[in-house]
Amino acid sequence: MIQIGSEPLPEVAVATTDGKAYYYLTHLLKTARITFTSITPGQAAPLGVKLILTTRKEKTYFSDIKTICQEEIGPTPLAAKEKIVSKLYGDKDQTLFIGVDPGERIGWAVYYHQELAGGVVNSVGKLVEILALFTKDSSAGNKIIRIGDGNPSLALEIATKLFSKLKGQTQIEIVDERGTSSHKHAPRRRGLRDQLSAKLISMRPGQIYTPVSRNKPRQRP
Fold it and tell me: Which of 7, 35, 197, 205 would you label with 23, given CA atoms 20 to 30 Å apart?
């Protein structure tokens, strides 16, 4: 990222004369908290810009720079952010990491080269909905969801539902989360602490979850 003065230059530019497309793209970028600039099709990309968001019809104006068309960017800010980060920095060998901190409030965090998103939800159903949509839209070559084991029954419930929803296509791990919730510099707001715990969990390898070994009762000899 190029930086002049105290502020880094935007690496993303929106370039379209289509009013609806411009509103759609800029709204996604603002919601995803991605800094951008606006240019007109045919205008040279400003210093620092590595990626142009445009429409399929206007893509031909930008043959010498990476582009993403409105029609392929994804339906949600989270999916849009993943695709943009993937296009800017990613390759097929990189891994998408998702951390989950189970509890009364379930913290979650998503990383792909950099922090993409995170939050707190109050139900397993909502968590599964968010993570399922995101992992299905992700272009990462590898995807790993890591779930803390501080609440074993809840961790197992989350793992089971995610495995079923994702049809086993995303690796799920159960992680020893000791030390992830008692950090010295944790934010005072409890929701942010849950999200930070999820971030630390996402970085810690765990035991691969398999429904057969964890759900099927052991047979006595």
Answer: 7
| CA atoms of 146 and 94, how far apart (whole Å) | 16
C-alpha distances (whole Å) from 18 to each of 50, 70, 95, 107, 217 are: 21, 11, 35, 38, 59
Per DSSP, the residues of 104-147 read: SSEEEEEEESEEEEEEEES-HHHHHHHHHHHHHH---SEEEEEE
Q: What is the DSSP string of 189-207?
A: SHHHHHHHHHHHHHTS--E
Whether the domain at 3-73 and the domain at 95-215 fall into the same CATH topology: no
What confidence tens digit (pLDDT) does each residue in 40-54 have? 998 988 888 999 999
Q: How do strand 207-208 and strand 171-175 relate by DSSP bridges?
A: antiparallel
CATH says 3-73 is which class?
A: alpha beta
pLDDT tens-digit map of 55-89? 999 999 998 899 999 988 877 777 788 788 878 77
CATH top class, domain 95-215? alpha beta
Q: What is the pTM of this model?
A: 0.72
Among the ranges given (110-124, 141-155, 188-202), the one the predictor scored with the smallest mean pLDDT = 188-202
